[in-house]
Specification:
single chain, alpha+beta, Alpha-D-Glucose-1,6-Bisphosphate, Chain A, domain 4, 5 helices
């Protein structure tokens, strides 16, 4: 049976590009989210789609999930996972006057036997999401302390892996180019 719900509706005090780079930076999963993900493997990284194997822990049980993810520039994402049952998510980051709004909608194909427990499952997933995204928000705050607010240029260094990096650069070309020009690393008219 299909069970749909809003996982989260929250505001953050950093810009949309900071949220997008954190979402697509897979290198931090192994250390920052180790409590939640025991394994994270990128099988395929296309221009705007990726296939990933992720071992996630729910209720103390580890599930080997296969994810298909899609980046919809500039700041939306869709994801489909297969375990413990099919889960579809849609995440959107939108600019607000003070930062970024994050909303996540979830649709789960629940087995009939679990239907009576759907509210408990939604509550667990909300707590799980708050913990994982709280870790990301805390990392953004630490990065701000050392490098300044909304400093996402680290994600675009040549040696830094970021899912769909070229598509992100295309979507945020003006913002990235202006930041590089302010630092004297690129003239505003130069190609990224």
């Amino acid at each position: 049976m299909k069970f749909a719900f809003r996982l989260t509706d929250e505001d953050y005090d950093y810009d949309v590009l900071t949220a997008v780079t954190a979402y697509l930076d897979c290198e931090h999963y192994a250390w920052l989210h180790a409590r939640n993900y025991s394994h994270y493997e990128i099988l395929e990284d296309g221009p705007t789609t990726s296939r990933i194997i992720q071992h996630s822990k729910y209720f103390g049980i580890t599930f080997k999930q296969r994810h298909f993810r899609e980046y919809i520039p500039p700041s939306e994402f869709r994801m489909v996972a297969d375990k413990p049952f099919p889960i579809h998510t849609h995440t959107a980051f939108t600019a607000t006057p003070t930062g970024t709004h994050r909303s996540v909608d979830v649709m789960i194909d629940l087995p009939l036997v679990l239907w009576p427990f759907r509210s408990l499952l939604a509550g667990h997933l909300r707590r799980y999401d708050r913990r994982v995204y709280g870790e990301d928000a805390a990392a953004a705050t630490r990065r701000e302390r050392y490098f300044g607010k909304n400093n996402w240029l680290w994600a675009f260094r040549p040696g830094q892996f970021l899912l769909h990096k070229d598509a992100v650069v295309d979507a945020f070309r003006d913002q990235i180019g202006a930041a590089l020009a302010r630092r004297g690393e690129l003239s505003p008219a130069a190609e990224l």
